[in-house]
Specification:
The protein is an all-alpha fold. 60% of the residues lie in helices and 2% in strands. Helix 3 (51-67) packs across helix 4 and helix 5 crosses helix 7.
């Protein structure tokens, strides 16, 4: 876009949609509410985006799409981006227990993952993807699960095969619940905050171990 030009939120969406099909007015507004973007406002109160705003949005959306990073991690990376420093790629970060974004409805989940209706239904049936309690929408992390499940299913696996992944995560979460049980039972805010820290740090450790052990096992297959 030309230097100094100002775009409306609709024009920004049209500019980004080819690379980020799920970008929407509500998503951009949400990113603004979380302090990741701060577009200029016209005298009438309409959002106006310049070239830097669009580049910033593109960076944020790319981090979400390619690395599934929580917003608080993306926000920390924006500091490097603003200084023009190289931002290293990151693995998917699922250790944060804070929300990584807006809940997804069924249509958004299908669009993001490219699953078919029957594939998504099969994943829901086995409990790999579950709606938020007492609602019809899914947690933001369901987008990661659905996208990766689609990749595995395209390789030839069926939904029923992915029960192994579900059972593994359930066993690991049970283990970590036992670790934090005394803190979770306490009623004071300090204990709850400590429980959150324990669960986040220990889940990071479990995920790192899981990836390393999986790598070791699969490497053996390549040596045979």
């Amino acid at each position: 876009m030309p230097d100094g030009s100002q775009l409306s939120i609709g024009e920004v969406i049209n500019l980004l949609r080819d690379d980020f099909p799920d970008v929407s007015v509500s998503k951009i507004r949400f990113l603004e509410s979380q302090g990741l973007i701060n577009p200029h406002r016209s005298g009438s109160g309409y959002r106006q985006f310049d070239g830097t705003d669009v580049s910033r949005l593109r960076f944020i959306l790319q981090q979400q799409r390619d690395h599934f990073l929580p917003l608080k991690v993306i926000k920390s990376k924006l500091t490097l981006w603003e200084r023009g420093e190289e931002v290293e790629g990151a693995e998917a970060v699922a250790g944060s227990l804070e929300s990584t974004g807006e809940p997804l409805d069924r249509a958004e989940l299908l669009k993001r993952s490219q699953l078919s209706e029957s594939e998504l239904s099969a994943l829901i049936d086995i409990g790999l993807i579950r709606p938020i309690r007492d609602s019809v929408v899914f947690p933001p992390e369901a987008g990661v699960v659905a996208t990766e499940a689609k990749r595995l299913m395209d390789q030839g696996l069926e939904a029923r095969h992915l029960r192994t992944v579900k059972h593994s995560s359930e066993r690991e979460s049970d283990l970590l619940r036992q670790l934090a049980a005394p803190l979770l039972k306490a009623s004071n805010a300090e204990a709850k905050a400590r429980a959150k820290d324990v669960l986040e740090s220990s889940s990071d450790s479990v995920m790192a171990m899981h990836r390393a052990l999986l790598t070791i096992e699969l490497r053996q297959d390549l040596k045979t």
